Amino acid sequence: MDKLSRDELEQELRSRRLQADAIDRALRRDAIFESAVDFAIVVCDQAGVITDWNRGAECTMGWSAAEMIGQTTHRFYTLEDRANGRVESEMSNALRDGSAPDERWHLRKDGSPFWASGELMPLRDDNGVHQGFVKILRDRTNQRVVGERLRVSEERFRTLLEAVETAFAIVEVRFDADDRPVNYRFLEANAAFTQQAGVDLRGKWVTEYAPDLEPFWFETYGRVAKTGEPANFENYANTFDRWFDVRAMRIGDPAERQIAIFFNDVTARRRLEEQRVELTHEMVHRMKNILAMVQSIATQTFRTASSVEEARDAVSGRISALARAQDILTETQWRAAPIRDVLQAALAPHRDTGTNRFTFQGPNIELTSEQSLGLSLGMHELATNAAKYGALSTAAGHVSICWSCDMEGGFRLVWQETGGPAVAPRQRQGFGSRLVERLVANYFAGTAELLFQPEGVKFVLTGQVEVSMSATQAKPRLGVEIRPDMRKRS
Q1: What is the greatest pairwise CA distance in the chain?
Q2: Total Cβ atoms within 10 A of residue 225
Q3: Cα–Cα distances in Å, from 210 out to 206, 217, 240, 241, 268?
Q4: Core vs surface per residue 420-448: b (16+ CB within 10 A) or e
Q5: What number of CA atoms fall less than 13 Å from residue 305's CA on the CB side?
Q6: pLDDT digits (tens, 9 = 90+) for 432-469
Q7: Helix count (H) and strand count (E) of the chain?
Q8: Nearest to 102 by CA among 41, 52, 33, 56
Q9: I need a labelling partner for 121 at 20 to 30 A (CA). Which of 12, 19, 472, 484 fits?
């Protein structure tokens, strides 16, 4: 009997200890439940009626436990979520999947929204019977706002980069074992980058496309990545055959060796500048040549002229001939001039508007700028002499100018005067004759002969021109008289 009493006593003591342990565990759970003030913990039954509401829920949403126990969880959901059955769908998903994420806007007691980040889980007893649900939430409004601002900022930045004409890329620089830059990869690039570079290099190492890229690019980008000092420069990339105006700066963690580069293709501007320099040099060169020619003309004219008046008239006429040739060359940008235009400009002062004193016949030949100047001076001298003493000094006089060119550029031009006074043999060779025979021939790399025949002065020029004819047969200009006998003599 005493022994039985002891067994019953021990069983009673064991039962009390278990009850005490259960009470301790419950107290600890309650303490945890209430002390988790950073987390809103809400317990509800199967219908969504709230049965527990911790201090964290009160701090997060503003309602006290007394205000919320017995209410449904609909109370802190937005009107839109209530109308859409969001509460019911979350409970269904939690039962089906074991949990349901809750990342959305909820309401506080004062009606203000906050961004909740949490989860809804089924609540079951020790036997696995479904008793209700537990919802755990954290207020992530600040993080949500910051993240949204960051997203908007990134979108604006991305839109800006895609819209601007300046090329942009983020580049990762690779260094070898000796810490020397040997390659770089394009991590990101905008549309302008692809357009200006002429190739899409996103995700690629530059040596994949340009294995022979100049060391300058590796050294410059490597220095920016290592030191953090920005670089601004213009440089030529032979692989791309382009000039680039570049701004490079380090970004992010220095250990990542990444830089941002902004650049513009300035090839057109650089080539225009080069052309401008070349053009300036060419203009200076041509101006010196023209001034030297004018100086020589003036010196020789005054040396051989019989009077100041004669010299003045001769110099004025010769410089005017040069000026008319210059006008033609200016129109053609000093590249070449059509021979017919050169002849007509040089002889313009001597052409009668009422009669055809000149006949032109020959193919369409382009003369160099030097040939244009030389021929213009020669034609001026011949016309001036003809006006004083030859065919142009009488009403019946006529001048025929015929030229030809073969496929190799062999050139021949004939000036023939007819219908003027009988020509006397030349008594002396003045500067005008020397200009016609020597200067003009020199520009054509050939020979020139001035013949004083009784029926009229004849000038024959042979040499070389560049073969750029549009026709190999003589095609007279409409309205200009071509005489049969002129054709035979040419």
Answers
A1: 178
A2: 24
A3: 6, 11, 8, 11, 22
A4: beebeeeeeebbbbebbbebbbebbebeb
A5: 15
A6: 566 677 778 888 989 988 888 989 999 999 999 986 54
A7: 16, 17
A8: 41
A9: 19
Amino acid at 351: R
The answer as to whether 112 is a domain residue is: yes
C-alpha of 436 from chain center: 53
What total of structural domains would you count in the chain? 3
The CATH code of the domain that includes 483 is 3.30.565.10
User: Exposure string (b/e) for 56-67, b if CB count within 10 Å is 16 or more?
Assistant: bbbebbbbeeee
pLDDT tens digit sequence for 201-256: 788 898 888 888 889 999 999 999 999 999 999 888 887 788 888 899 998 899 99
Q: Output 119-123 pairs: Cβ under 8 A, ≥24 positions apart.
A: 120/90, 120/91, 120/93, 120/94, 121/94, 122/94, 122/95, 122/98, 123/43
The first and second tokens of residue 401, run together, are 């100018």
User: pLDDT band for position 477 (50/70/90)?
Assistant: very low
How far lies 114's CA from each of 44, 82, 143, 311, 324, in Å?
21, 16, 11, 102, 86
Instruction: Read off the pTM.
Output: 0.39
217 token code pair: 């690019």
CA distance 97 to 34: 28
Quick one: which of 457, 464, 406, 421 has its CA closest to 436? 457
Record the tokens describing residue 361, joined without a space. Answer: 């016949």
Q: Which domain holds residue 474?
A: 305-489
Distance from C-alpha of 277 to C-alpha of 262, rounded to nearest angstrom:
28
- The half-sphere exposure of 56 on its side-chain side, counting CA atoms within 13 A, is 20
Q: Kindly state the DSSP code that residue 474 receives in the 8-state scheme.
A: -
Residues 477 and 402 grouped into a single domain: yes
Tell me which amino acid residue 253 is.
D
Q: Is 278 among the domain residues?
A: no
Residue 42 is inside which H or E element, if any?
strand 40-45
Q: Long-range contacts of range 57-63, CB-CB < 8 Å, 24 or more positions apart?
A: 57/137, 60/108, 60/114, 60/137, 60/138, 60/139, 61/106, 61/107, 61/108, 61/109, 61/114, 62/108, 62/109, 62/110, 63/109
Whether residue 458 sits in one domain with residue 358: yes
* CA–CA separation, 108 and 63 (whole Å): 8
Same domain, 323 and 444: yes
